[in-house]
Amino acid sequence: MEPLDRIAAALERMSPAPLTAPDFSVADAFVWHVAPDRLEPVAEVSRVDMGLLVGIDRARDTLLANTRQFARGLPANNALLWGARGMGKSSLVKAVHAAVLAEGLPLKIVELQREDLPSVGRLLNLLRGSDARFLLFCDDLSFSHDDQHYKSLKAVLDGGIEGRPANVVFYATSNRRHLMPRDMIENERSSAISPSEAVEEKVSLSDRFGLWLGFHPCDQDEYLAMIRGYCDAYGVMIDEDSLRAEAIEWQATRGARSGRVAWQFFTDLAGRHGVRV
After folding, report:
1. Using alpha carbons only, what angle is made at residue 160 by residues 158 and 166, rounded to the nearest 5 degrees?
2. Do 88 and 201 lie in a common domain?
3. Same domain, 204 and 136
4. Cα gap 245→10, rounded to integer Å
5. 174-214, pLDDT tens digit by residue?
6. Are residues 191 and 70 in the same domain?
C-alpha cells in the first residue's frame, strides 16, 4: 500500500482540496500566501499615523473618501497610487485603512504580492463568499516586457464573466503610471505593424483603475515638516536650527528628499536621543 499512499499524496499536492475560508473575525488584516493557498492574519499592521503624512493632502482626502464609501457598502473605485519613490504611497493605503476602522466602519485589508497575481482568481472566490468587505492591496506593482502577470490582474479589475466581487476593492502602488517601463512602450511601438495597438493591452491596464493618484517629489520645506512632525509625535527634543542643519546634511548624503529619507533620518535622530519609536 505504500506506493499507493505516495501516489495519493502526490496527486493531492498537484490538486489540493479547495481552501476553506478562515475566520475573518480574528483580525482586520491578512496576507495571502500560495503553495499552499492560505490567508494568514496579521495581528499588528506596520503603519504610520495619517497625521504624519505631509504633502499629500489631495491624495489622502480622495483615497479616504473612496475607501469610506466602499466600507459603507456604496460604490467605489479601484485605485492606482503612482509616482515618486518613498513618498508615502503604501503608507497612505495602510493609514486610510486604519482611519476607516477608527470610524467604526468594517473593513479588512488583504495584502497580495505581485508574484502571486496568477492565484488571484482563487483568492477572489474565497473573498466572494464572505460577508466582510475587503481592501485588496498590492504594493510596488509593475510589469516587464515578458511578464504575463498583468493578465491575472484583469480578474481583479474587471472580474471576467463573474465580475469583480462586490465586497472587494483593489488598491495598488507603483512607481510607473502605466505599470510598465517607458522604454518598453517605445520599443514595442517602433517595431509593431500597428504601433497604436502594440501596447494597448498592457498600457490600458492602468486605465481600468477608476482613481489615479499621483505622488511627486517633496521640496525642502515639506521634507523638514515631515521630520518635525515625527519629532513632535515621538517626543524628540531638538532645536529648529540643529534639526534643519542635520536633516539637510542627511538628505545631501542620500542625494534625494522623500518621506522615506525623512523617516530614516528621524530613526537615526531618535536613536541618538535615546527615544524608542
Report:
1. 60
2. yes
3. yes
4. 63
5. 987 767 665 555 555 555 555 555 456 556 677 788 999 99
6. yes
